[in-house]
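Re: weekly structure request thread

Next one in the queue (201 aa):
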Amino acid sequence: MSTALQTAFTPEDLLRLPDDGKVYELVDGQLVEKGMGAKSSWVGGKIHARLNAQEELGHGWAFPADTGFQCFSDDQRKVRKPDAAFIRRGRLPAEQLPEGFFRIAPNIAAEVVSPNDLFYEVEEKVAEYLAAGVELVWVANPANRTIYVHQADARTLQLTENDELTGGNVLPEFRCRVGDLFPPAPAKAPHEATQAGGPVG
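Done, posted below.
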């Protein structure tokens, strides 16, 4: 991640940025760029689409990667933008969306690991989300096609592509095969039935 150079920014500054402001979070008064590659962005879109299906069923609200959450007690000006998020129905006053950033934590926050992400940065985000009250944090890693599920009770599950990702008690209706959230794996080279002396047959 790269940090833009300026003395300090506020959440209001972030809202006033042009469209490219969508790719920034706000941490310690600095703009921090979310540098996602094509694969990571695609995976985030797939997760959002699956959560959006739950929205269409009336279970809540699904949000894409440019949605900001200003819900952190350690720094009330911090703004994080998970790659996908979900808020259960009934948590928003009159079910109305705010004009600015959310001041409540989502029930589910999903982060997709990008090639430039550092391990400690991802772990830091997970800890921040959980401390803010997020009940489920999904960390998808396209490199090894796994998803880590971090839960509010401090348990962590590692799911591989043939496992099922669920919304647990947060979103019981949500079920999805992990592998369906990643692009198809590269085809393996076909086995050549050859011997040292040449082709067989």
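The chain has a mean pLDDT of 89. The two ends are 55 Å apart (CA to CA).
Next request, please.
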